[in-house]
Design goal:
The structure is a single chain. The protein is of the alpha+beta class and 335 residues long. Helices cover 31% and strands 28% of the residues. The chain has a seven-stranded mixed beta sheet, sandwiched between helices. The N and C termini lie far apart (53 Å). Bound molecules: biotin. The site of biotin has 21 residues, from helix 5, strand 5, strand 8 and strand 9.
Length: 335
């Protein structure tokens, strides 16, 4: 842990009471002059830190920037997800960077954030709009002890964590569209692109690429996306604290990932189903070159979507693009 991470953690723990320079110096094993120099550096990147001879140092506010030291300082305990955090100002795609790190055998739980992406990728070859300083664009490296066919569990868990974190941070309750689109009032707010390297009987690594439209304004999207996308800021009517949301998501992901690796997928699946707007609907699913139509009935034990097709048979879908069908003969939602 860096000195900046430890200073920020101490300041946060002290809260309004502040922490004396001597205490920081003793706790960190560096001189008071060195503490002062680190505080000056933190102020230079936007932290408002009050210094008074009586109260010592007090953190008044943090900048709306993603800084690895800051994010690490807010993750207490020993999380797996977020044990190693790297932040880039601009990159093509965080999934791309994580792919390289994965091949370099970086340990699972590493997270790469970028303030902006020039080639952000969405599912099914789409592009993902990732303007600077307005969203959370990041990738998480996992090495799950799962079979390749169980990988839908990961995306289901990630969508559940993401929806829960958004709800806890903003009060908004998003819907989940199978398998892992996060929508608010039917508009896309966040998405997950899972990329994997597999062997016949194991997942070598999985990269969860997560994009959250946090403080985007309508003008941030090109015309055709403006009607189908939204941001938390637009929905909440106020700016959302990005670093705080980032940490909340990492904590929820960490808890849920541990749960599914420990045999607790059913509990996550129940929460997912509760927030899923796809179940009970008539759907058209484009999956692996074919189209399945029917009623989205349930999720199986691996997280696959079970669709009752026109012939009354259950079709098991492990990946694809779902469109909800609404027609007079086929009402949107079943009782
Ligand atoms: C989707 O289409 O719903 C998935 C969107 C995933 C976007 C994220 S942003 C961070 C990571 N890097 C990428 O290039 N894509 C994912």
């Amino acid at each position: 842990m860096t000195i900046d991470t430890r200073i920020l953690r101490s300041l946060r723990q002290a809260g309004a009471a502040g922490v004396a320079g001597t205490e920081l110096s003793r706790g960190l094993g560096i001189s008071r002059a060195a503490i002062w120099s680190h505080i000056s550096d933190l102020r230079a990147v936007g932290y408002d830190i009050e210094a008074s001879p009586h109260l010592g140092y007090r953190l008044v506010s943090a900048p709306d920037r993603l800084l690895a030291d800051d994010l690490l300082s807010r993750l207490e305990g020993s999380p797996l997800i977020g044990r190693d955090i790297r932040v880039f100002r601009e990159t093509l795609s965080t999934n791309e960077i994580m792919g390289k790190l994965a091949r370099d055998e970086v340990a699972e739980g590493a997270v790469v954030f970028a303030e902006s992406q020039t080639g952000g990728r969405g599912r099914l070859g789409r592009t993902w709009v990732s303007p600077a300083g307005r969203g959370l664009w990041f990738s998480v490296l996992l090495r799950p002890p799962m079979l390749p066919q169980e990988m839908t569990r990961l995306t289901v868990a990630a969508a559940t964590s993401l929806a829960r974190a958004i709800n806890r941070q903003t009060g908004i309750r998003p819907e989940i569209k199978w398998p892992n689109d996060i929508l608010i009032r039917g508009r896309k707010t966040a998405g997950i692109l899972t990329e994997m390297q597999t062997e016949p009987d194991r997942i070598r690594h999985a990269i969860l690429g997560i994009g959250v439209n946090v403080n985007l304004e309508p003008d941030d999207w090109p015309g055709e996306l403006r009607r189908s996308a939204t941001s938390l800021r637009i929905e909440a009517g106020e700016a959302i604290d990005r670093p705080a949301l980032a940490v909340r998501i990492l904590k929820e992901l960490d808890g849920d990932y541990r749960k599914i690796c420990g045999g607790g997928f059913a509990e996550i699946a129940a929460e997912w189903a509760d927030q899923c707007s796809t179940l009970g609907q008539w759907v058209r699913v484009r999956t692996g070159g074919r189209v399945v139509r029917g009623r989205a009935e349930s999720l199986d034990s691996d997280g696959a979507l079970l669709v009752r097709n026109d012939h009354g048979q259950l079709d098991r879908i492990i990946g694809g693009d779902v469109t909800v069908e609404k027609s007079p003969e086929r009402p949107g939602r079943f009782p």
